[in-house]
Amino acid sequence: MDVDASLHEPPTTQLPNPIPIDPELVYGCDEIGFMPSRGAKRRVIGPRNRSIQHQQGDGGRENTTVIVTICADGTATKPTVIFKGKALGQSDKGWTDGEIGVEWIQDFHEQTKDKSLGRARLLLVDGHNSHYTRGFLRFARKNRIHVLCYPAHGTHVYQGLDVVIFAVLKQNWTQERDAYYRQTRQRLTKKNFLKIYGEAHIRTLTKENIKTAFRVTGVIPYDPTIVSDKLAPSKETSSQGELPATQPSPVVA
Q1: 240 found inside a domain
Q2: CATH number for the domain harbouring residue 154
Q3: What residues pair up with 69 in beta bridges, in sequence order?
Q4: CA spacing 20 to 30 A to 196: which of 34, 118, 216, 233?
Q5: What distance, in Å, lies between the first and last C-alpha atoms of the chain?
């Protein structure tokens, strides 16, 4: 009796087609630091025949970190501000660490869960270690938040916040800080930082700017041709991880 040879072949496992994530659920986040006397280069108008013109500034060097999160639909979540200090919501060095990273993603979830209606969200991040702690990834997985990391040395090309938003934000921040000082004669402090930064944030995080950040980096609409080989990070300056041993079939490393 003839037997169909195909019955003796090992069954093939077909992976389900991936479910696309709606643009309104694609987010990008990054950190930006502010110092009292740090800002964009500016022209200072003063008397003629003086070789050096000065604008007085605060001599403080304490860094304040702001985590900015934007969405491909042109919206943004409320920013997270991290002051240098010892209390919760503060950091010894003024930037995010593992504990604050978990606090942040929990807040991100609260701000975006109603919009998601149980659907998966995509969160684009850089390689900072605060994004890859066990607590951070466990919470993300539990709440259907897919975390995708930009390639090493590539945020200046792929990260829309770096490419579009942060340069404008720095400029607006400098203008708001200087205007506040001219009006009040008060130096920048933790007490007035939120007021000053808030004005710059609102001016910068417009729907047009946010959508441009995703478009010019080829994320939404998806266009891999935007980033050419010339712009992409070089292999000489990038790191590539490998598993210590080849995985047996059908697992593909």
Answers
A1: no
A2: 3.30.420.10
A3: 29
A4: 216
A5: 42
Indicate the number of domains in the chain: 1
Measure CA 38 to chain center: 21
Q: Give the residues of the chain that fall short of pLDDT 70.
A: 1-19, 37-61, 85-97, 128-131, 154-155, 228-253
DSSP per-residue string spanning 195-230? HHHHHHHHHH--HHHHHHHHHTTTTTTT-TTSS-TT
Q: Answer whether residue 230 is part of any domain.
A: no
User: Is 47 contained in some domain?
Assistant: no
φ, ψ of residue 85 to 5 degrees: the values are 170, -165
Closest listed residue to residue 244, CA positions, set 234, 235, 253: 253
> Could you tell me if residue 246 is inside a domain?
no
Question: For helices 166-184 and 190-204, what crossing angle results, to 10°?
Answer: 130
Structural domain that includes position 208:
23-34+60-221
